[in-house]
Every structure is written in C-alpha cells, then in structure tokens.
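call fold(seq) -> tokens
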Amino acid sequence: MLDIIINCLIAFLVGGAFCVIAQVLIDKTKLTPARILVFYVCLGVFLTAIGAYSPLVDIAGCGATVPLTGFGYAIANGVKTAIDEQGPLGILTGGLTGTAGGITAALCLGLVVSLIFKSKPKR
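ret:
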C-alpha cells in the first residue's frame, strides 16, 4: 500500500513539475502556449533519443508519460520500434503507430464532448 502511495506521489510531483515549468515559461517569456507545447513534444523526442527519458518514465510512470513530453516519448519509441521491424519505412509509420491509441482516444472523446455540449461563438 505504501508503494502505491509513493508511486502516486512521484508521478504527481514529476507531472506537476512539467506543468510548473510550462506556466513559468508562459508567465516570464513571450512564448505562446502553442510554442511551449511544441517545445515539450520535441523535448520528449530529444530526451528519448539520447536515452534520458526512459529512466524518468521508469521512475515517474504516468507523471512522465501523460504530459506532452510523454507524447514525444511515444513518437520516438514508435519510430525506433518500427525501424527495427520494418527498416527505413518505419521512419514514416512508427510515430503514428506508437501514438495511435492516444490519438484515437482524443478524437473519440472530442466527438463525444461535441455531441453532449453546445458550442458558443467567441465574441
């Protein structure tokens, strides 16, 4: 039981640290949220490529895989796996294969929410 609580606490702290860093970047720089999101995905790919992100995932679990850096991690791992299995063609297919579950969930949940709630135009 104590292991579960510690794992949840570590995941919360790591995921929260990613959020705090993004909020500081929004507040203290002229970076737009969209640029920060792209930076986080690219950072996840880069850290995976140099082998630094996998140990963080092993320690923090969902605290490292749920934020956008985790999306970059999933893309990089998908490409790596696909290259091992398919060769150079895996460069084109691996990223989508590695992230298909998350993309499908986002699309389906977006559709459900759009059917439940009525949109309002911005003024």
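The chain has one domain: 2-116.
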